[in-house]
Amino acid sequence: MVMVNLSEGSTTPQTEQVVAQVEDYLLTEESATVDSTFATLGFGFGGSGQNTAMIFVKLKDFDDREDDELAASAVATRATTHFSGLRAGQVMFRQPLAIPGLGNTSGFSMELVDYGNTGRDALIAAAEEIEALANQDGRLQNVDVSGVESEGVLKLIIDQQKAESFGVSVSEVNSILSTIFAGSSVNDFDMNGSLRPVIVMADAVYRMQPEGIEGWYLCHRNHRQLRNERSQKRAEISEKSDCILGAAMKSGR
Hints:
Strand content: 15-25%
Largest sheet: 4 strands, antiparallel
Shape: flat
Oligomer: single chain
Helix content: 25-40%
Order of helices and strands: EHEEHEHEHHEEHHE
């Protein structure tokens, strides 16, 4: 199996490019050993996110790779060397345990504890030093540190009173935010006999930066009724005068 872990903040398209590189290498350079690959984005044993992916590699039958150079361990060693200089992040080729149920990968794990209370930066520096020394030891491979990277977080503060004054409930604000960033299923369609969902979601360009939230508007519950009661002149006023989202929110990291 292959674990892809790019730097924090990497997007899904960037992860897809790395996954495509790995699959292309395995299916061309290691075609004598590799039969097929299957990739999943956003999932990994070390966590989930746009910057993570897993690639499950199916090897050819043992009878077709009797040579030691075609063994799974040999493929993992060559592939690890090939992608060791990848600047986008880490690509780790690991063999599953011989006995299912005893962990996710072979080898051993250890924990580094800051008993001296020296702080997070010192703990990370020590962990990275151990990782560097371990990777220089020929007896070890694919040594990596997990659980130390800072994760970017977008914090949205909703001014509930201001939102209610515009005729917008907090649940409506949460609903549109969920649709913008995570998507909402609105229907189903048939594709070659298989039922597929129709998902509405903001285009990536409009949800990549915190400032993008200021460009979204939510019409209040009385919008239609108010427009019907207006004169033709007032009806020509921009619909944004009856919409609220960015005005009731503040964004910060």
